[in-house]
Amino acid sequence: MLTLKNYAIDRWTEGSGGGADIASAVTGAAIARSGSGGLDFGAMVRHARDIGGRNLRRITFHERAAIVKALGTAIMDRKEELYALNFHTGATRKDGWIDIEGGAGTLFSMASKARRELPDDVLFVDGPVEPISKEGTFLAQHVYTSLKGVAVHINAFNFPVWGMLEKLAVSLIAGVPAIVKPATATAYLAEAAFRILIETGKVPAGALQLIIGATGDLFDHLTGQDVVSFTGSAATASKLKCHPVIVRESVRFIAEQDSLNAAMLGPDANPDSPEFQLFAKEVAREMTVKAGQKCTAIRRALVPAALLDVVERAIIDQLRKTTIGDPALENVRMGALVSLSQREDVRAKVGALKAEARVVFGASDDLAVIGADAAKGAFVAPMLLRCDEPTAAKAVHEIEAFGPVATLMPYRSLDEAVLLLNRGGGSLVMSLFTHDPEVARDVMLGAASAHGRVIVIDRDCAKEQTGHGSPLPVLVHGGPGRAGGGEEMGGMRGVRHYMQRTAVQGSPAVLKAVTGAHVKGSAVSSGPPHPFRYRFGELEIGKSIETAARKITLDDIEHFAHFTGDTFYAHMDEAAAKANPFFPGRVAHGYLILSFAAGLFVDPAPGPVLANYGLDELRFLTPVSPGDEIRVRLTAKSKKKRNEEYGEVRWDVLVVNQKNETVATYELLTMNAI
Amino acid sequence: MLTLKNYAIDRWTEGSGGGADIASAVTGAAIARSGSGGLDFGAMVRHARDIGGRNLRRITFHERAAIVKALGTAIMDRKEELYALNFHTGATRKDGWIDIEGGAGTLFSMASKARRELPDDVLFVDGPVEPISKEGTFLAQHVYTSLKGVAVHINAFNFPVWGMLEKLAVSLIAGVPAIVKPATATAYLAEAAFRILIETGKVPAGALQLIIGATGDLFDHLTGQDVVSFTGSAATASKLKCHPVIVRESVRFIAEQDSLNAAMLGPDANPDSPEFQLFAKEVAREMTVKAGQKCTAIRRALVPAALLDVVERAIIDQLRKTTIGDPALENVRMGALVSLSQREDVRAKVGALKAEARVVFGASDDLAVIGADAAKGAFVAPMLLRCDEPTAAKAVHEIEAFGPVATLMPYRSLDEAVLLLNRGGGSLVMSLFTHDPEVARDVMLGAASAHGRVIVIDRDCAKEQTGHGSPLPVLVHGGPGRAGGGEEMGGMRGVRHYMQRTAVQGSPAVLKAVTGAHVKGSAVSSGPPHPFRYRFGELEIGKSIETAARKITLDDIEHFAHFTGDTFYAHMDEAAAKANPFFPGRVAHGYLILSFAAGLFVDPAPGPVLANYGLDELRFLTPVSPGDEIRVRLTAKSKKKRNEEYGEVRWDVLVVNQKNETVATYELLTMNAI
Questions:
Q1: Active site residues of A
Q2: Same domain for B396 and B438?
Q3: What pLDDT shows up at residue A290?
Q4: What domain count does chain A have?
Q5: Element (H, E) at A631
Q6: Which pick of A39, A52, A501, B150 has the fewest CB atoms within 10 Å?
Q7: Domain identity same for A554 and A637
Q8: Does residue A127 fall inside a structural domain?
Q9: Substitution target from A541, A591, A603 for chain B, most B beta carbons within 10 A
Q10: What is the Cα–Cα distance from A221 to A242, expressed in whole angstroms?
């Protein structure tokens, strides 16, 4: 019997006043005691804000990402401790893999994205500089900065580890401390994972806290700088969303709640097409993985009317293979629901669904349980229902039986299928099994707005596809309407939920100071030595060089054409070039301009600049005619450390002609020694 | 006396049952009658969804942008009709310019952004393709599609034209029909502007509807595909946000409500610095423009404690110039508040503020009104208050007197200033007057998360700066916390509020079909003729060519180096190149590779390809040593029509070596004849 502890104000604290007992899903025996009595929630919020927020905001995105990565490593190192508790939740080892290793993988993925996509700074820009003045003395730039509040994470019981970690990954990278409230039914597993995080010693003081039990007056202490990220039932979400403080303070509320996800077999399928088998297997798999207790599980399976019977048989063939029992046993494919009350809930909801659909597989009285007592554990059989008139039905589109339950239904046309897909009222995910890309486009246009994720599965991606029910850290997870209207993950999109977007307006010097990047019009420093002489750490943003001029002759153009083989008529044929709407006559090749520009600005001797590794946003703006002269302004624009040996430097390059017209602009990328 | 009409189900409809009279702000006489009695709100919502949404979604972003532009042109063509009504709202012509021409300008700006930044399609992508499989048979891409619902726009009284148009611009471009509910106090001006829109004949059936008066059971008909965009008081917003349907259906709710915006004079200022004068003028201007009835107006003016008295005098000097009276008169600078009840509200709130601040200018009994009756019109004097202990105060940070009212307050350190800025609990905008970019960065890091917009004004941008109180269409408008937590405008960011982001997963062929763009791994068509032989309209996405190989010799490298002047050591010095961490020895110039690549793929004869106008995302991935051979795969990736004569083609370019290693990848941009 475990006594679970809260982690408040950087200390492990047992709840006072006696908490609730938590039972094993498999044996029904009490295995842990929860309780948050005696916690000072106001003090916890202040501690998060004053200490945790400050600690997180004074380190950069890259440093936060390093912490997140270290937390992932710790989870992987100690995963067996978590697998040992996982079985009590009713989950098999395979189910636990999604939760535990999937959770660690999410930390790794987010940490890696943050390193690659965010600067080594505490704010980042959104979109380009907006030119809001004629002379360029006044510019604007959107930036994201960390909210100066706390993230309250209210998690669901089904993925106690992953559910906690996917939220923590983004809030930590955003620089926002979190208070985590796991669902009580599996709080012992969340507490164990949380303990691993704390025991790394890498979590800054105040950055993470844990509440095992009721949240008391926690919400009363929130403000508009805080975020609540909730995963759970629509009923609870509705209550919380209207909490007077949430409403008054416009506290951000990210909700992920009920979802009647659908899988659809395309109209192009027949019993012999690979997509048919892929569909039947996926429906059965989604019903039984984690005993169907996944927010993303398939609840509605839509098939062409003509295939209804044969699909039904194919799914049942798959379901028959499901062995049910003690999830710790190797020959068991499906364990138990999380609790007996959850089983009651599923049974009641199946009861309601029966008003519109009939059970074609898995009447619960024929349950054979391996290695466990069916009376004591929360076991149920997978249940396939069939609804023959889904357009007239209501319950099958609205009632989510959160267990191994799905309803099969026919459609008669693509329009009807889209209608049925959208009858879910907003879902986390839908899958489409088709080998016709045009069907995919049509269904997308019809149904995408009601779904947070659409996965199209066919023979071409069958081997590598990641599954209907698997949210990925790089993709948004969430859905409109019934699904709660929230979004989580999605790579750095998820980080933004914990940050404020602000439009900053000011002079170029101000934008440069705020963003750390050179902006057109901000001061440059042009004296010797050449900018290529500075090591990464020493190179100042704004360090610049303006080159001498070089005349481009007709000989140069002809020579370049014959040397490279690029004899495009605009360079070679005066009459044809003149007929072109953009050119006054023969003009220099764009790549000749680029090459001469490099010849003008490159400092050839060995030094800190190791390589030109690329170029972005090149635009040729004024053609160069024979006799024109070009010169180049090269300015250090921004820097990003790659590792301990070198870092990327982004240079702003401006090529002008003898009339000071802009010939070309681009951003040059070099790798510089640290 | 005008009888205002609703526009419901594509018909002008007078409200039944008698509506409320609306009085002129200047004379107090009734000038219009409102009323929405008898409207069938459910039918209006269904009409918007079924007819309006369908009509908008079957045209592209560019076509919708053309409509939006036409609406802007119509407003400009008929602007005098609106100016004539504008005076009744209490606004001067200058105030009306913000509302009327500012509204048209927002339509133009959004239309132009949509043309430039969105594809000529009905969906657009968000971020890059995510490589979520090893072999590349399974990819993901986030896309935005139009919500299949209706936008309900609830507008404030202060900018009846601009407030309506800035919301309509983005929802129309997003492909979502709107039902507009203007504030009653100035509904006659909104109705006149709306009539101009309808009379263009450019608005698709069902796309726009108007409610002049109460919204009845409108909200009962909303779903998760709908959006409510609300501008008004926090009290009303709180009520609407908790409407059971809004909560149950997770209807998107964008709120822009109260805001205690602040202006701050930097610690670097003194009475002789340009920023000092700029600050005093801006505070006075913001107080008096539109009689201070701007959501973005300065309510709190923060100055270094030592400058408090001298700033007070400077602002008062400015305020003394304010002539008050009939806004139609040329010598009147400030008109009236919108209504007598609004005047009562302002007076009551000033009364509450007086508990913490004293009035240092503008006691309302010394009011001289020009050309109007002070007893009948809603005139008030500008009122400057002063609060000497703002850290201890509460009301000055929380009570928004929506009129020509601001409170001056001192700060003693930068930290204290940031604290005070943030005491507003979330604002639409703050301004900072400083000539020290480091102060700007520090204040940004301290206060940006509590503000939707930060404007830094100094001598360098003084001439071109757009003003504390002016939201711009390209910048987000909105703020966290007390300001409502919503965001509007921000260029195409605003369009996204009316669309659903969906993660799409599938094979390359599926992603290509959905997004219309070539994706790595999707099928290419390689036969003759050369892809450069196709006109814009005929060129198919996926049309591709693989070139012959070309060997790059040491002679080529040396020749190129001497010809261009680029004698960087990595190309010229074997020993130095070998010492470089990236190169095996001397390597070819990146620009030599680019140039030879062009030589390999260019089809030189005159044809539909008019120009190479740029290049994006070039990365050099494998160095090319003397003796290596390169060849190129060029594939049409996406197209975007620019005008009736030509369009942009984006080509995916892959350069490989003889070992099939990727040497370089980039996107080439050409302009092709239509």
A1: 256, 295
A2: yes
A3: 97
A4: 3
A5: strand A629-641
A6: A501
A7: yes
A8: no
A9: A591
A10: 15
DSSP H helical ranges for A488-610: 492-496, 508-515, 554-564, 569-572, 574-579, 590-601
> What DSSP designation does B458 have?
-
Residue A51 resides in a domain: yes
How much is the mean pLDDT over chain A? Answer: 96
Q: Answer yes or no: do A328 and A279 share one domain.
A: yes
Q: Are residues B290 and B253 in the same domain?
A: no
Residue B627: CB atoms within 10 A of its CB come to: 10
Interface of A with B in 381-440 (CB under 8 A): 422, 425-426, 437-438, 440
A140: contact with B, CB 8 A cutoff: yes
Between CA B70 and CA B77, with CA B71 as vertex, the angle to 5 degrees is: 90
Residues 278-317 of B with CB under 8 A from A: none
The verdict on B63 and B188 lying in the same domain is yes
Give the residue ranges of DSSP H helices in B58-151. Answer: 61-77, 79-86, 93-117
Distance (Å) of CA B401 to CA B261, B292, B407 = 12, 9, 10
Q: B451–A502: do the CB atoms touch at under 8 Å? A: yes
Counted across chains A and B, CB pairs separated by less than 8 A come out at: 422
Backbone φ and ψ of B437, nearest 5°: -60, -25
Segment B198-214 shows an average pLDDT of 97
Neighbour-count burial of B509, counting CB atoms closer than 10 A to its CB (0-12 exposed, 13-18 middle, 19+ buried): buried
Task: State which residue of chain A sits closest to B663, comparing Cα positions.
Answer: A613
Query: At residue A349, does pLDDT exceed 80?
Result: yes
| Selected catalytic residue, list B166, B191, B256, B282 | B256
Closest Cα in chain B, distance from residue A376 (Å):
36
Residue B612 sits at the chain A interface (C-beta within 8 Å)? yes
Q: What is the CATH number of the domain that holds A189?
A: 3.40.605.10
Does the structure show a pLDDT above 70 at B104? yes
pLDDT digits (tens, 9 = 90+) for B414-448: 999 999 999 999 999 999 999 999 999 999 999 99
Instruction: Flag whether B517 is in a domain.
Output: no
Nearest C-alpha neighbor of A552 from the set A569, A565, A571: A571
What's the half-sphere exposure (Cβ side, CA atoms, 13 Å) at B463? 5
Alpha-carbon span A153 to A227, nearest angstrom? 8
Comparing CA positions, the residue from B630, B665, B623 lying closest to residue B552 is: B630
Is residue A431 one of the residues assigned to a domain?
yes
Tell me: do B331 and B247 sit in the same domain.
no
pLDDT per position as a tens digit, A120-144: 999 999 999 999 999 999 999 999 9
Asked if A249's CB is within 8 angstroms of B425's CB, the reply is: yes
Query: Going by C-beta distance under 8 Å and a sequence separation of 6 or more, which residues neighbour residue B619?
Result: A613, A614, B664, B665, B666
A585-624 burial, b if ≥16 CB within 10 A, otherwise e? ebbbbbbbbbbbbbbbbbebeebbbbbbbbbeebebeebb
Residue A552 structural domain = 524-673
Pair (B357, B453) in one structural domain? yes
Per-residue confidence band for A377, with pLDDT thresholds at 50, 70 and 90: very high
| ipTM for this model | 0.96
CATH of residue A433's domain is: 3.40.309.10
Residue pair A319/A384 in contact by the 8 Å Cβ criterion: yes
| Residue of B113, B118, B246, B250 to mutate when probing chain A, most A C-beta within 10 A | B250
User: Cβ contact (<8 Å) for A564 and B645?
Assistant: no
| pLDDT band at A365; cut points 50, 70, 90 | low
Annotated catalytic residue, options B295, B387, B487, B488:
B295
| Same domain, yes or no: A74 and A203 | yes
Q: pLDDT of A70-122, one tens digit each?
A: 999 999 999 999 999 999 999 999 999 999 999 999 999 999 999 999 999 99
Structure-block tokens of residue B148? 């299949």
Reported as a single tens digit per residue, the pLDDT across B262-303 is: 999 999 999 999 999 999 999 999 999 999 999 999 999 999
